[in-house]
Task: inverse folding
């Protein structure tokens, strides 16, 4: 269906509005069948840049919608039926427990994208909104790429932990290269250590 | 916030929300019986798949992304809330916007992963895109295969949101309002994204035309 919207001042640049109005008319002029896409054009606003009009025509002819293979369509339909059965089962039991998605049960246990989707269980459990771009990015970063995550202002990552362990081990292997600590805590530790050594020497000595 | 009743309007802090979703009966049926999600799946499969294919330029990656999109949609369907703005096109489908938000997130993650471990060359990706276009379709529009190739190349090189807006507009024939819902931008911003994207495509097409062998004897 073609519908024309009046220009709304202050909404966007006038050129963008003219382009948008043309696209509304152009893309609404025929359906997705190739012959309609070839035949139809749309009335052109005098202000429309001819180069933009030509680019729109090229994109309209080039960006055709394609259908996936029927084999894929049926395979995915079977996986969805699996998940639907899972959901119904949970609803019937009335359990609030999180049950991991039973992967590929009716399709021979084929490890497809569903089995490889590390976020599906969280979506299923209701702890992740799949339409929330930020939440999905965070979850994907943590579960898939191991990307550092900002939590309460502190950067935490496995890489930092490994670097910390390596640094401590390296320092421990070179005790002589570092000056003795002169802090209050270090002094207290040295005094306590000397006292324990003296007591041990006294207790173990001749009566 | 409570879901609005059919045909009823409800004023919230920033907008009037009304029930306009043409998919409402199918969504309600799928909520009652998840097995009936199949109708929504069959209806939107080609749209989601085509979007993923143009974004990822790889058959298998597009199938994986499509699969994840629909599985996540079915898993999250009980929490989907129908919301459409009152000034939206009467045929706007808020389920479709929600579904494409999921698809957009799946595809964005996949593109990021592929940047870390590139699977193929740029030429291979372009070739995959060109296979989509049927030469007979192009001839009728007086659009040459070279122009189609140049246009696809230009679209692939666009910044993320411009590219997404073009694909949603031309491949999935979404309205500006629907694209705004998918991308989380205002309608004005989407119009500007599209206008600028078309400007870039037009410029690249012009450059290719000038550089064609016949133009320089």
Result:
């Amino acid at each position: 269906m073609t519908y024309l919207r009046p220009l709304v001042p202050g909404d966007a640049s006038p050129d963008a509005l003219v382009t948008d109005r043309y696209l509304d008319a152009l893309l609404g002029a025929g359906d997705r069948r190739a012959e309609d896409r070839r035949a139809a054009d749309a009335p052109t606003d005098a202000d429309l840049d001819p180069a933009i009009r030509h680019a729109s025509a090229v994109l309209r002819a080039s960006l055709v919608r394609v259908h996936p293979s029927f084999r894929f369509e049926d395979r995915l339909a079977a996986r969805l039926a699996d998940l639907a059965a899972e959901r119904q089962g949970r609803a019937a039991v009335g359990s609030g427990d999180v049950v991991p998605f039973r992967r590929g049960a009716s399709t021979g246990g084929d490890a497809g994208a569903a089995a490889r989707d590390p976020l599906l269980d969280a979506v299923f459990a209701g702890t992740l909104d799949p339409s929330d771009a930020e939440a999905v990015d965070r979850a994907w970063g943590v579960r898939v790429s191991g990307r550092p995550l900002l939590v309460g202002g502190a950067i935490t990552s496995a890489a930092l932990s490994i670097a910390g362990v390596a640094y401590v081990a390296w320092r421990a292997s070179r005790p002589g290269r570092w000056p003795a600590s002169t802090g209050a805590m270090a002094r207290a530790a040295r005094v306590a250590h000397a006292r324990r050594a003296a007591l041990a020497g006294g207790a173990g000595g001749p009566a | 916030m409570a879901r609005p009743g059919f045909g009823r309007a409800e004023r919230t802090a920033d907008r009037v929300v009304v029930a306009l979703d043409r998919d409402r009966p199918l969504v309600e049926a799928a909520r009652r019986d998840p097995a009936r999600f199949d109708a929504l799946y069959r209806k939107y499969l080609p749209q989601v798949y085509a979007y993923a294919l143009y974004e990822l330029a790889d058959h298998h990656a597009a199938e994986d992304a499509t699969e994840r999109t629909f599985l996540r949609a079915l898993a999250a369907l009980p929490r989907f809330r129908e919301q459409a703005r009152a000034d939206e096109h009467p045929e706007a489908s808020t389920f479709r916007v929600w579904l494409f938000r999921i698809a957009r997130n799946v595809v964005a993650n996949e593109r990021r992963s592929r940047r870390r471990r590139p699977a193929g060359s740029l030429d291979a990706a372009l070739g995959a895109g060109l296979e989509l276009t049927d030469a007979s379709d192009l001839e009728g529009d007086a659009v040459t295969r070279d122009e189609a190739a140049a246009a696809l190349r230009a679209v692939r090189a666009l910044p993320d949101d411009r590219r997404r807006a073009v694909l949603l507009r031309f491949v999935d024939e979404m309205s500006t309002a629907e694209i705004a819902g998918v991308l989380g931008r205002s309608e004005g911003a989407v119009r500007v994204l599209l206008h600028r994207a078309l400007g870039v495509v037009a410029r690249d097409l012009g450059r290719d035309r000038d550089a064609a062998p016949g133009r320089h004897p």
